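Input record, target 12 of the design panel.
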């Protein structure tokens, strides 16, 4: 890029899963390396790029809203929509005023070429310096993409059908690059990282190689399914650099619903996976996702799910009211649950989640845990423990990107207050 010409400013944003965040972070690193100036999406930019999500109709609506908001911020900006919604329904996004380019998941890797970034500068690793770098002390790294499981409710196999696994050597070198550039935590993400497989290396082999081949201070895994939790995988947590946090998708605590959802485990398998994790990993946080109001979900089936969630004592439950997605099996199922019932069940599940979050956090009051500090607002710093507790503390020092021991003293806001 010619230094005499002021580079255009680009605002990047993403909705939805950690995989989308990983992709937008990688794009940020590549654009910074190519000399673009990144600004926050709340600021005026020359180009806005949104990695859209289509997992629910609410995600669709939010995607459209963010694009319209960007247009209002700068009516002459170029708007680019990429990702799952862009893949599923490009025409819907194309008709939003100002949208110049809509790239589905199969075409979005061309984005850098379309923006004129030379191949030699599409490295993916840059010295963090822009707004993303200031805020992001944790890097989301995509190691896998695509799913062919076709769970009955899920749009993902329709919008991310091509299976890709990043070779273990490449992942290791990317982690080395991230660490060299100051990142203290790397989160391995993918559509379904539990099914990672590259040249005979599975997820356990990949994690083993990263731990052996890099000095990464913290390594975290994104979502797994219960049948992917093996003694060999869990055994790796003897290395304290692996964060004691498992996000284990449950979706329903009723075997009959799980069967209709076409999930590949039963409640008993889930219970065994959690026991294995808790036996091997001290202080571990187990978090999950629950869909309420799946077609045909009876009061009894919902109660089974509530009871099971109470039994497991999750550190957090992400609650999703069922949203029929076009083309999926569940969208055409009879006995769709009414919005009123979904709302009622959602509220009950959210109340249980709030209770569980507090109970989990309270267990650590009086204990000292390491916190990776991320940002400061009004003199109060916030950061995360390895087991995903948000910690707040006051300090005059600049703590960004430091990992320090903190004594947790009381529940505070959505997390815990601590003394450094
Ligand atoms: S495993 Fe099921 S829920 Fe997860 S991405 Fe694949 S189809 Fe969707």
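The sequence produced for target 12 reads:
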């Amino acid at each position: 890029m010619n230094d005499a010409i002021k580079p255009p400013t680009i605002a990047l944003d993403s909705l939805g899963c950690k995989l989308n965040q990983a992709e937008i972070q990688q794009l940020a690193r590549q654009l910074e390396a190519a000399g673009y100036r990144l600004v926050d999406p709340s600021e005026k930019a020359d180009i806005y790029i949104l990695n859209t999500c289509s997992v629910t109709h609410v995600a669709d609506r939010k995607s459209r809203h963010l694009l319209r908001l960007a247009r209002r911020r700068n009516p002459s900006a170029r708007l680019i929509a990429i990702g799952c919604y862009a893949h599923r329904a490009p025409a819907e996004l194309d008709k939003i005023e100002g949208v110049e380019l809509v790239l589905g998941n199969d075409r979005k890797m061309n984005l850098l070429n379309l923006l004129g970034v030379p191949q030699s500068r599409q490295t993916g690793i840059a010295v963090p310096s822009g707004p993303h770098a200031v805020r992001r002390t944790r890097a989301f790294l995509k190691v896998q993409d695509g799913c062919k499981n076709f769970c009955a409710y899920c749009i993902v196999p329709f919008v991310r059908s091509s299976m890709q696994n990043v070779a273990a050597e490449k992942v290791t070198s990317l982690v080395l690059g991230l660490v060299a550039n100051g990142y203290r935590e790397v989160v391995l993400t993918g559509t379904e990282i539990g099914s990672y497989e590259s040249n005979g290396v599975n997820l356990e082999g990949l994690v083993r190689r990263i731990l052996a081949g890099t000095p990464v201070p913290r390594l975290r895994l994104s979502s797994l399914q219960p049948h992917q939790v093996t003694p060999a995988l869990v055994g790796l947590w003897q290395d304290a650099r692996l964060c004691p946090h498992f996000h284990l998708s449950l979706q329903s605590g009723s075997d009959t619903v799980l069967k209709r959802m076409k999930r590949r485990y039963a409640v008993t398998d889930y219970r065994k996976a959690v026991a294995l994790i808790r036996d091997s990993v001290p202080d571990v946080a187990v978090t999950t996702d629950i869909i309420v109001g799946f077609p045909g979900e009876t009061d009894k089936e919902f109660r089974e799910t509530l009871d099971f969630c109470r039994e497991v004592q999750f550190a957090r439950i992400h609650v999703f009211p069922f949203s029929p997605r076009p083309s999926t099996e569940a969208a055409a199922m009879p006995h769709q649950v009414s919005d009123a019932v979904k709302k009622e069940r959602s509220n009950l599940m959210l109340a249980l989640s709030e209770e569980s979050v507090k109970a989990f956090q309270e267990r650590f009051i009086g204990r000292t845990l390491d916190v990776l500090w991320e940002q400061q607002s009004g003199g109060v710093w916030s950061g995360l423990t390895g087991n995903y507790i948000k910690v707040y503390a006051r300090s005059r020092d600049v703590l960004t990107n430091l990992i320090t021991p903190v004594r947790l003293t009381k529940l505070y806001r959505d997390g815990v207050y601590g003394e450094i």
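The domain at 253-363 is CATH 3.30.750.200 (Transcription Regulator spoIIAA).
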